[in-house]
Amino acid sequence: MLVSTILADKGADVVTVSPEQDVQGLLTLLAQHKVGALVVSHNGTTIDGIVSERDIVRALAAGESLMSEPVSRIMTSEVFVSTMHAKIDELMTVMTSQRIRHIPITTDSGELIGIVSIGDLIKARLSELEAEKEALVDYITHGG
User: Fold this and answer.
1) What is the reported pLDDT for 144?
2) 39 FRET partner, CA 20 to 30 A, in 17, 22, 48, 124?
3) What is the mean pLDDT of the chain?
4) How confident is the model over 49-82, as pLDDT tens digits?
5) CB neighbour class for 32 (10 Å; exposed up to 12, middle 13-18, buried from 19)
6) Cβ atoms 46, 110 nearer than 8 A
7) Containing structural domain, residue 44
8) How far, in Å, are 50, 85, 125 from residue 108 at the CA level?
């Protein structure tokens, strides 16, 4: 299954946050949209970084006072991205090895068009496995 299938089901809407937005505003957006990460973008289409709950916790654990600081201070600048042509298994491997939970999806020219989480990938993979199981049960019970 390809990422394009996931985006077709969940939609390609991506909530972004400006690098200049303060962390308090970031927290509001995360809570409002019930997500764990936001793509950081100055224009909504190019990727400047990504910021997650994990980035916030790390900064707080370091004793930093964050609420009025810009998102750019805590964001991750090096972002692994993928395209709609990627296979779910490939992205699951990357997420596991890189210890990341969100991957922005771009066009071939680099324009932001979606985001997938590890939860999205697991849900899609479980659907694939269920369909395979049903096909095998049907084959066994009704013959080939």
Assistant:
1) 61
2) 124
3) 93
4) 999 999 999 999 987 788 999 999 999 999 999 9
5) exposed
6) yes
7) 3-142
8) 19, 9, 24
Encode 8-64 in three state secondary structure.
Answer: HHHCCCCCEECCCCEHHHHHHHHHHHCCCEEEECCCCCCCCEEEEHHHHHHHHHCCC
Number of domains in the chain: 1
Contacts of residue 114, Cβ cutoff 8 Å, sequence gap at least 6: 3, 7, 11, 12, 13, 14, 84, 104, 105
Whose structure tokens read 């496995």?
A: 129
Phi, psi (rounded to 5 degrees) for 41: -150, 135
Q: Which letter, b or e, does each residue of 60-88 get, where b requires 16 or more Cβ atoms within 10 Å of its Cβ?
A: eeeeeebeeebbbebbeeebeebebebeb
What's the CA gap between 71 and 130, in Å, rounded?
A: 41
Tell me the pTM: 0.86
Q: What CATH number corresponds to the domain at position 72?
A: 3.10.580.10
CA-to-CA distance for 46 and 18, rounded, in angstroms?
11
pLDDT (tens digit per residue) in 93-120: 999 999 999 999 999 999 999 999 999 9
Q: Which residue has the tokens 């707080």?
A: 60
